[in-house]
Amino acid sequence: MASxxxxxxxxxxxxxxxxxxxxxxxxxxxxxxxxxxxxxxxxLLLEIHSYQPIVKSIADKIVNGEYAGLTWDSLxxxxxxxxxxxxxxxxxxxTIDYVIDKMQADGLENVHTENxxxxxxxxxxxxxxxxxxxxxxxxxxGLGSSxxxxxxxxxxxxxxxxxxxxxxxxxxxxxxxxxVVFSPEWESYGRTVVYRSQAASVASLxxxxxxxxxxxxxxxxxxxxxxxxxxxxxxxxxxxxCITVEDAQMLLRKYRRGEKMEIHLEMEDKPMEPVxxxxxxxxxxxxxYTNTSVxxxxxxxxxxxxxxxAMDDGGGAIISWKALTYLKAMGLRPxxxxxxxxxxxxxxxxxxxxxxxxxxxxxxxxxxxxxxxxDIGTFEPRGLDFVGNADAECIFREIVKLMGPLNATEFxxxxxxxxxxxxxxxxxxxxxxxxxxxxxxxxxxxxxxxTMAVEDPxxxxxxxxxxxxxxxxxxxxxxxxxxxxxx
Length: 487
What we know:
Strand order of the largest sheet: 3-12-14-13-15-18-16-17
Oligomer: single chain
Number of strands: 18
Radius of gyration: 25 Å
Structural class: alpha/beta
Number of helices: 16
Distance between the termini: 25 Å
Largest sheet: 8 strands, mixed
């Protein structure tokens, strides 16, 4: 077990210690037992617990006080004004300009943007119709980066399977020239999304002319869900789209009965050249440390081009921005800078995070202390996920216990901490993501149903209060969060 190393300085005498990371770039370590229990120094426990009144005040003012309902209003204004914000679109860039102006009006500091190259894909006219053995419209959404069909579309026979494993057993000569329908059972998003990502290339390798995929959702009322897909290098690109759960299951049943089916598929989708977008940044500058030991709170501002991205990830972006706004308005300025980053180009493959990592790689160990990201819904909060080493875990467990006023004290680990911040958390930086009651998140995810109707004002208040309180405590502690960074 690691030994406890404490370094006393004038700044830390009040508690009998100070962070080695803050004082002299050394790192404190704390005992963590095999059963997960921790031996934090009494002085550090006392310091963490001393933040309870501040956490309660933050929760009271945001959830029940003068800021109640304002976060929902701000999100509604944003999505009502600009709608969907797909990477490469003018809607996204206009939204970024709007947020910059609003952050400045809120009094945030160092408000600016940083460039990131993102894919640019344009959805055109899309139609699918079962034409044999009877006519039936098949609602669909082309998947990101999909190529289109020839003008007028294609009419081809259907081959339907439940899984890639089943498809492997079918000879290529039976696939050639057909539209392959993949209708997998929902297991989880992480396990089932592989069909959306890889279906086109898997089908193309055996000569298919197009692929249709069951929407990646556990529940459906006849709505297709979009998302990004990826062509394998060296494999012919074929059109690919998601269809509804109901239609995918129907086509699979009919195929297994031996019925011959044909689909007329027409897609005018176009992959374009990459364009320059921007990550959007605002800060609450620390009282002691401004450009070092920064605490990042984040969500992504881009969305897909259906729905308005209120849930994915307007909610995560707005709580990251407004957490700083409310802390500043309450006169709460921590030792370290809290930096809100609203990522761009997340949906197509974490492009905003990748560009930011590259732009800040020279001094990243000194620059960053902790990363937060919200990108899995902003429903009623339960607590926080955590990723990091055992020492940081010991500290963060105690911080989460402070969130009792929000009934959000659940702690889960390990996790990746969030998609964009995985550029750092996968290499040893500590981070956290929002735990919330999001059992229905994938009902609306990447669909026309992602609107303000799924956002509850009170729950959004609780989420932003949790975000503000947790970020403030991490940023104000006299200790840095320990990390084991792999370059």
